[in-house]
Amino acid sequence: MSQPRRLSIFFLMCIALCMTVPLHGQSQERMDKLVFEPVLMEKAPVITPVLSIGDMSGVGNLTSLALITPPDTSAYPDITPGSSAEVEEVIDNYRQGISVIENSEGPFAPSLTQELLSLGILYQDLGDHLQALESLKRADHISRVNNGLYHVDQFPIVERMIESYFALGEYAAANDNQRYLVFLNDKLSDTQSSATIPMLSRLGDSNMEKFDQTIVRGEVDEPIVHFEQMLPLSGVPDIEDPARRYAIRNLIQAKNTYFEAISSVLDNADYDNPRLLDLEYKFLETVFLLGYTVDMLREPHYYLTRARYESNTANRWKFLRRNEAGYLTGLETFNRILQYLENDPEATPLEHITVMLELGDWHLLFDYSDAATSIYREAFAQALASGLSAEEIQALFDPSLPLQLPLFTSKPNSREKFGIEPSVSLDYDGYIDVNFSINRIGTANHIDVTGSSAGTTLALEKRLELYLKNSPFRPAVSASDTIRKEMLQVRFYYVFLQ
């Protein structure tokens, strides 16, 4: 080869490398803040994309969500004015009121518990967590004096104490108090299940919020200084990033807390508890996510991909069967949900059929496609027998835009991942048009990008392909079998969140 030709090839390779590096950088730095919105091409509106994020008011705090889910304060007085000066004025009023109660009824008057709790919340509004803890600890002490060592009044007090401990960076104390709430529920569940369940549910939610904040949204606002003091996680490989291990720990705690709440309801035969179904689905989400702990530690967003596309058949089989216990736990959960519906005189056939489809989805997610098909067909037969209209059956079993699984946890690059409500409009940065098929077991294949808006990069197209292949779609179902969906034409609008 001549010297000029070698130089030309070398020059072209350098240009290609220079073009590739920014593309890779974009993939690494921005793709996790990307949202895809699928619309069938025949229904896609004509939109000129705006090349910047639009007004995100009403979306929620995308960059800094509360570390602890606040207690339900609907029963409390309105004690959250707008400005700091107003808060301080209300604090003075509360302190004067507390002094009046102490002078007239004594330092351990029962009414002081609520007053001190409200005062602690006000101090938290000002960001003064030391003063907040002082008020909350005193409220807890007075509650114990009047109600005994263990009482339902302690739940909102301890929840607020946890919030202040985390704000002050005292993570060991926060974790101790979280464990105390679980212990407190054990003590009270025999006699006060209906009162303890909301508190326990919120405790699980706070653990899930910390999991989402750390491992899903990648927001680590606090140094995990007490992480080394925690016991090692069984079955979780050592990695250098303690924040991700901290996130998995919170996921484990959420699972245990939701199960504790469910057990309390069932032990007390409180089957009409309005929170029961919600708790079951939250528990189901934690069971599913924990099955992918190893891959989630490596890749927090696309942890499902390896399970579905492991090239070595033996390794893939081993990977899918590793979480056999989680799969069986999920089946038990769905069996409980179906029993609730069967014993609920107000449950509709549509509710029962919907849960049957979700049970089929669970089989499919764990690669039991034959079992999934059998459940789907059974659900279809029930739909025909129940008298649902042809339109309702079509929407359930063969929607124009198929549902991508799982439905009980947020998918990567989705609105749900960032807490964006469906009613909130987004100014899209662009779109990608894709044709693809869905086979009889829900796998997307024959993916073909047919067009895109100006500025769309190869990295974006590859990310969309990964999005489509990461998890299965619910297959279309007929009276006799599942159906292959040929050449769906879908426009995926996309927007980068700031």
Salient structural properties:
16 helices, 498 residues, 8% strand, alpha+beta, four-stranded antiparallel beta sheet, globular, 6 strands, Fusion Protein Consisting Of Minor Coat Protein, Glycine Rich Linker, Tola, And A His Tag, Chain: A, Domain 2
CATH class designation of one domain: Alpha Beta
The strand line-up of the biggest sheet is 1-6-2-3
Can you count the helices? 16
Helix-strand category: alpha+beta
Q: Biggest β-sheet: count, sense, barrel?
A: 4 strands, antiparallel
Helix content: 55-70%
Structure description:
This protein starts with a helix and ends with a strand. The strands form two sheets. A four-stranded antiparallel β-sheet has the order 1-6-2-3, covered by helices on one side. It has helices spanning 3-30, 84-105, 112-126, 129-147, 154-167, 171-216, 242-267, 276-290, 293-298, 305-309, 313-321, 324-342, 349-365, 369-386, 390-397, 458-470, and strands at 34-40, 430-438, 444-452, 476-477, 482-483, 485-496. Helix 4 (129-147) packs antiparallel against helix 5. The chain is α+β, with helices and mostly antiparallel strands and 498 residues long. A hairpin with a 5-residue loop joins strand 2 and strand 3 (444-452). It has a domain at 28-62 and 410-496: 2-Layer Sandwich (Fusion Protein Consisting Of Minor Coat Protein, Glycine Rich Linker, Tola, And A His Tag, Chain: A, Domain 2), CATH 3.30.1150. The protein is built from 16 helices and six strands.
